[in-house]
Write a structure and sequence with these properties.
By secondary structure, the protein is α/β, with parallel strands linked by helices. Helix content is 42%, strand content 22%. It is globular and about 40 Å long. Bound molecules: adenosine-5'-diphosphate and guanosine-5'-monophosphate. Guanosine-5'-monophosphate binds next to strand 5 and strand 6.
Length: 186
């Protein structure tokens, strides 16, 4: 990574596969890892906290940040925009930290162009039926959103071959340990 010592990890996978659940375990086990907090224009869920799970911002503010060069990458997912704030990631990388970005596939492709050494990990569900079960049991989206997320998921899973590593999140402990082992080996 040019002029940078840290490692960028792109953590992707379809909505509902368990990315946040796995990441919480991984970050608890290794507190040297730095998780980037994304920007989003979507509505906040009941269990979420602004500034912890995401920075929940308006479309205008999002567009201003893009214009000011404050966004490293961004993508539209469903009806909303999601993006990575640039400043903190640059700072952490210059400090030699391992930075984890929760990111969908279009954003990951953009990052790979800027940071070819970024390492991609794609989390797969044990099956599409199980993915649907998890999305439903999480209970955070309405039926229309669930269908949209499942449609996007099918395209995303097809792109998992472009990633450096894939991890199946069937048993949560195994999946979290697999992710930790991959990151520790970088
Ligand atoms: P994502 O961040 O990928 O959208 P979440 O972490 O919110 O997904 O997980 C979606 C749902 O699936 C949550 O209700 C979570 O508790 C559940 N879940 C996550 N991992 C597993 C697993 N290995 N087995 C069963 N349920 C899981
Ligand atoms: P959710 O609404 O379920 O929290 O996230 C929807 C999708 O947006 C997920 O695939 C998630 O990985 C992705 N996402 C979250 N943060 C970012 C980001 O900063 N950039 C991009 N490109 N995608 C993100």
């Amino acid at each position: 990574m040019t002029n940078k010592n840290g490692v960028l990890v792109l953590f992707s996978g379809p909505s509902g596969v368990g990315k946040d659940t796995v990441l919480d375990i991984v970050l608890n086990k290794d507190n040297s890892l730095q998780r980037s907090i994304s920007l989003t224009t979507r509505d906040i869920r009941e269990n979420e906290v602004d500034g912890r799970d995401y920075y929940f911002i308006s479309k205008d503010k999002f567009n201003n940040m893009i214009e000011n060069g404050e966004v490293l990458e961004f993508a539209q997912y469903g009806k909303n925009l999601y993006g990575t704030p640039k400043g903190p990631v640059d700072k952490w990388l210059s400090e030699g930290k391992t930075v984890i970005l929760k990111i969908e596939v279009q954003g990951a492709q953009q990052i790979k162009k800027i940071y070819p050494d970024a390492v991609g990990i794609f989390v797969l569900p044990p099956s599409m039926d199980e993915l649907e079960n998890r999305l439903r049991s999480r209970g955070t989206e309405n039926e229309e959103d669930i269908q949209k997320r499942l449609e996007i998921a099918r395209n995303e899973v097809a792109k998992s071959v472009d990633y450096d590593y894939t991890v199946v999140n069937d048993d949560l402990d195994i999946a979290s340990n697999d992710v930790l082992k991959i990151i520790n080996a970088l």
